[in-house]
Design brief:
Helices cover about 20% and strands about 30% of the residues. The strands form seven sheets. Strands 5-4-1-6-11-8-12 form a seven-stranded mixed beta sheet, with helices on both faces. A five-stranded parallel beta sheet has the order 14-16-19-22-25, with no helix packed on it. Strands 15-17-20-23-26 form a five-stranded parallel beta sheet, covered by helices on one side. By secondary structure, the chain is of the alpha/beta class. The N and C termini lie far apart (about 45 Å). It has two domains: about 230 residues, Spore Coat Polysaccharide Biosynthesis Protein SpsA, Chain A (Alpha-Beta Complex); about 80 residues, Hexapeptide repeat proteins (UDP N-Acetylglucosamine Acyltransferase, domain 1, 3 Solenoid), CATH 2.160.10.10. The longest helix is centred in the last third of the chain and has 13 residues. The chain binds guanosine-5'-triphosphate. The site of guanosine-5'-triphosphate has 21 residues, from strand 1 and helix 3. Guanosine-5'-triphosphate binds next to strand 1 and helix 3.
Amino acid sequence: MKALVLIGGFGTRLRPLTHTVPKQLIPVAGKPMLYHVLDLLPADVEEVVLATGYKAEVIADYVRHHPLRWPVRTVSEAEPLGTGGGMKNAGGGMSDPFFLLNSDVIAAADLRAIVARHLEHGGVGTMTLAEVEDTRPYGVAALAPDDRITAFVEKPEPEAAPSHWINAGLGVWSRSVLDAIPPGRVVSWEREVVPGLLDGGVYGFRLTRYWEDAGTPERLLRAQRLLFDDGRGGKAPLPRGALGTGPVATAPGATAEGASFGKYVTLGPGAIVEAGAHVENSIVMEGTRIERDAFVGGSILGPRARVRPSHRIVGQTVGEAGEV
Ligand code: GTP
């Protein structure tokens, strides 16, 4: 099977960081979000096709320098075509069926089991579903007793939501669904295409362990906690000469002599945390400097940012080279 990965969005909810860093390359528990998503794919996948748009070159360059275990091809859009348009643009030569993955969801999902379910029911699609309290930002499924999806409503008002089971952004689809997407224009897969596919048989596959849409700062940090707690952040011992608890996923060249750490931190290459500073529940990207006695909690610091001595930041997203 091949995998089609949607990776062309602007990531507006993570600005200012995403002005320079595409969302999918933000490191979470030690490596870019995209790489955690792809970790779910079986080893024998034939090809991964990245449907890129915004910052396509940055993504293609990163993937070239950090190879994946599968052959990878990037197909970029000159102008964003939306999720359906992106699928159509990049979907030539897809396998039947194929994996369709959003690149910004962190989940425990057994994709082999999803393929097995897809082949068993014989319909056109199998959509993973996650149960959430607030369904407003998502596509919501109405389900028959056998988990066949009988209606699909994108971003409904709470009173119009048919259930609490939402599109988790990981699925298996028959190649024929690509024929249902009109070519050459912006198309929303969720709004314009999926509802018309339901008659052909689309089934839900409920995720029961964890799932997070890592598209906002709070949820990104929650996704990081989930990954560490699930052992997907590696051993993550404290950096040399540092105190505290961790886990801290420390990239080569990062230093933190005399600094202290709480739980759940990613330190990018060449990041410097000076003596007396404390970091917890945060992402600190490459070349960022947290100066002496500063406190950083629940924050995401872009590349080459700076936190001044004794400064305290909580719940902030700082863009590339930002100073706080
Ligand atoms: P926000 O702007 O913060 O909502 O983030 P986003 O742009 O990533 O949008 P959203 O989270 O709704 O996107 C869901 C998935 O589809 C993500 O993996 C996006 O990268 C991807 N995506 C969204 N729009 C496009 C597009 O126009 N083209 C392609 N190829 N992918 C897209």
